[in-house]
Amino acid sequence: MLTKSHNEKKWRPRRIDLLPIIFVSPALIFFALFVIYPIFQTIWLSFWKWDRISPGIWVGIENYKTVLSNPEIYSAFSHSFVFIVFYSAIPIFIGLIITTLLLRVRVRGEGFFRAILFIPQIISTVVVAISWRWIYAADGPINNFLILLGAEKIATAWLGNFDTALIAVGLIGTWTNYGLAMILFLSGAQRISQDLLDADRIDGASMWQEFRYILLPSIRGEILIVLIVTMTLALRNFDIVWNATQGGPGNATAVPSIFIYKSAFVNRYVGEAAATSFILAIVIFSITSVLLLSRRESDD
Amino acid sequence: MKTKVGIALITASLMVAGCSSPGSDGKNSANTAETINQPVTIEEVAALGDITLDVWADAGEENTMKILIPKYEAMYPNVKVNLTIKGFDDLMSTVVPALAGEGAPDVAQGNQGYGVDGALVKAGLIRKLTDVATAYKWSSIYNSGDFGQFTWSEDGSQYGSGELFGMSPVAEFVGVFYNKKKLAKLGVSVPTSFDEFVVALETAKKAKETPIVLGNSDKWPATHVFGLIQGAFTPSSETKDFITGTPGSSFVSATNETALNTLRDWIKKGYFTEGYDGVSADDATAKFAAGEGVFYMGGTWFAGTIGEGLGDDAGFIANPAAGSGKRAGTGSYGLGWHISSKTDALSASVAFLGMIMDAEFAQDLASLNRIPSAKSTLKASSSLLKDMQEAGSRMFADSGLTFYLDWATDTMYDVYTSKLQEFMAGRIDASEMMQAIQDNWTKFQESRSN
Question: What DSSP letter does each residue of B145-176 carry, written as one string?
Fold first, then answer.
């Protein structure tokens, strides 16, 4: 009987409550207009041959074929994957080291240092790239320092050398992103109770053990966020590369966004630019999904 | 609920995004069918009533406009010029869609070649100027042999002949700047031939000077250096035919190979600024202007910076000639001025071009350190400018301005600049370099004929 009444209750026609929808509608409209609509417009444009002036010609998946048959796009993607190491892996590593140290050692004026270390994250990337161009220059401070040490042979135009340009640009990304990792990890670490840390230290835990068994499990969420944000930055990287090297020398630092920009705005192959954008979006979406799914599974 | 909203959003977006083909609402109707038979009169312009003339120009024109616009507004008091100045890259990426859109400028600068002017002509966005050239007798003021760079078939498919679609009153070309004091110190006279130039480079290197200052992080400066070496070996007509898309043209040639290998040889010998691929063009110019190095192979547009820095020590020669004795190298008329097909102020637009192209305006251009391409004799304000004017007349006399290779196709800039950097770094050889250029050209020619 009880079950029946329960079912009856469940089957009662529900009244649609409009109020929450009204509340979220501004955000929803904004999201639809500036996120959903451009995404579908890009997908739509990727099926056309269009030069921004003449009427477009429907070409089906031809643009995708053109993009995917260009060997340079693969090397551009491979550069992006190298950038993941510099934009994501190394900053996370540095962030973890700083957090572990600050957990153990109380530094006077910690807030001040934290702010200083976070500065690279908030400076305009154009300024960052131009400053590093100067730092990396043939007669810039890095080379001057090397010459001072008697290592003239290593000195080179770091951004102009085919062998060093990719790494040099990557390190600019490391410099801008480690602050984000550090701040998020430190805020996560604040949730760890002092009692736990005290107990653990009385028991004689090493710094490694404290890192492995206390810090790491506590900030897993933050690590995932940093991983997603920085990997996305590495993959859709444009401003730092464009302002530091324009993808050069040759195409040694070219990334997919450089091709997208040139196709869309310089050469006016809008369809190809849209196709490349969509491929890039799928790559980013796939990686992010795998990360989120792995998190969900490990939570279960 | 969530799913339903999602589906609704997706459907709505697809409907909005996908209901029409891109560009289908573009109206390229021409308001400019009227033919110009005589220079436009003040009365004809006055008949338009109080109007605003929208003009888009490259940043390099800023000072020229400061002189021209007050003169123009004084002569045609009913016209107010609304000037938009844009940096070169910005202008190139926006001028085509701007001329295609609503509120297109009446007068605008494009860029020769298939990338910009070709697109404008093909889409019918700019007006033919053949009648204007005849009415204003431009062919008697300028070297009409070089008008080809502004001529197109009416459908934009053929470049280098047909109707005139643009014009510029200045020449901009690459030549060799030199530091007089340094040359004197080295005991070297100003080179008059390519061989003498090579000897001067050797002497400079031995004296531990940087023979040629180069900054190539922007990728294009080395193409200008190569353009000069190419000009010494390859006949200018061959290079121009290739750029304008003359059937049967080829970049793969023995003379281009010699030019490329000469460039590579100079790199191996350390004739260029160390780490040039990591130095910007502006920084390199500033270094040369501050007294570093002996030569600087660069465009006349750097005369301001170099003249300011080196003063009377700055000299300039046209590209030293090799065997043929003819001087040739990268260069052309300046960015072409165009009239929009949609302008509703045709007479005012024509008057604007008429004034900037007028022989009398050439002296104003010369006063701004620019090189007027008019055949008139001008007073030069500095020895550097005098050198450049002389070099310009030599280049024009030999029909030696070989344009810019990136005009050849709409994607040539990327291929040429990147491949040249790879070649200079020794990652590809001369034949691979030439083939890459040729392949891009062939693919473009095929796509045009389809």
Answer: GGGGGGEE-TTS--BSSSEE--B-SEEEEEEE
